[in-house]
Amino acid sequence: MAKVKAGLPQGTRDFSAEVVRKRNYIFNTIRSVFELYGFQPLETPAMENLETLMGKYGEEGDKLIFKVLNNGLERPEKHLKAKEDFEKVLEGKNAEGITERALRYDLTIPFARYVAMNYGQLSFPFKRYQIQPVWRADRPQKGRYREFYQCDADVVGSNSLLNEVELVNIYATVFGKLGIDVEIKINNRKILGALSELCGGTDKMMDITIAIDKLDKIGIDKVKEELSQKGLDKEQINLIEQYLFISKYSGNNDIILQELKKFFLNSQTGKQGLEEIEYILNYNLNIWPNTLIIDVTLARGLNYYTGTILEVKARNAQMGSIGGGGRYDDLTGLFGVPNLPGVGISFGVDRIYDVMEELKLFPEEVHLGTQVLFFNLGEAESKAAFSLMQQLRSKNIRCEIYPEQVKFDKQFKYADRKNIPYAVIIGIKELEDGTCTLKDLKKGEQQTVQQQELINHIIL
Predict the structure, then answer these.
(1) Inter-residue contact 152 to 129 (CB < 8 Å)
(2) 424 neighbors 454 (Cβ within 8 angstroms)
(3) Statement: the pTM of the whole predicted model exceeds 0.90
(4) 192-220 pLDDT, tens per residue?
(5) Domain 369-457 belongs to what architecture?
């Protein structure tokens, strides 16, 4: 077999034991809060039918979907137009002769597909959470990967804005537990729809929202340039600029609401969006002061959002959004089950991890794997050590025994490399009198204790 250079696909990563433990700390924190709020787990396949995904994320999102090649391409008689089909795929189009499936882009569309398929068996409102990887054919950069995990919580079958209130509280609770100081930004797609109406029609909404969504990345001049390229005239672009000018009051929700009410004075759609934002802001939220902030530039350029939209950013870290979501009142209608309202949020675990690393927020105990290492000093000694080790394991103390009888130095180095806090040594003398030597490797101290009393001397 020919040798190959070891490497990873761009935008993917291996995770060491230390990284996995830290990631599991984040997963477990999020999962515990989801469960606390009454959400139940769901998993869907890594692959979906291409038609399930295409057309749900906007033109730019569709380009980032990882398509999966069909099997059987070695039979050219079944694919006489293979070259033509490949050219279509490279253009971001669908070609059934080449690809009929794709890796999931997010967890929301697969969830909507699941609800549509199981509509008759579900109890509504249906609350689910999902923690699984997704894939995007994006350009890798800091905080942006081609394979990454999402943690979603969604409610379908309810129009109540109490769901938005609960989801905002979930964000606040999770990030409070993780120790991350965040801004939870809020806007409403009805407000953006009203802006589009003022600019000549709702058919312009996607062009406007996609451009506005890039404001913090490319600046106002580039946004205006993009809007012009999309066919908006100078008067329409000036109106959008006036709207975006309200963002200068960011952090003062009262003033922003006043300015938005004046801007949308004659728009019923705009008024409805503002009422929904006020309802959420005025509810008795158990969150930190100045955490929930109106952001008029927040657009979340996905086709399926219809109401409240949310995005979370860490205040003291160089990172983009670490969470986002919103209301999508007819998402399942895409799959033949119309008029089923829904709202959901997502946590970007990989970015949360990077923020916690940058700010050194992981607690010390997260780094700990094995807690006690039993030295191997011979066959009889190791049998006694093994019996004692099993007693500790029955009390949920993580232990291991060094597999070979080697010099003390090698076994100590092994404990040091794995950051193991305790070592237990049972030699011939200890075997005879039923004792063991317990070494606290962090403090550099040791004591002789009775084997049956060992558990009482291990402080974790």
Answers:
(1) yes
(2) yes
(3) no
(4) 999 988 887 667 777 787 888 777 778 88
(5) 3-Layer(aba) Sandwich (3.40)
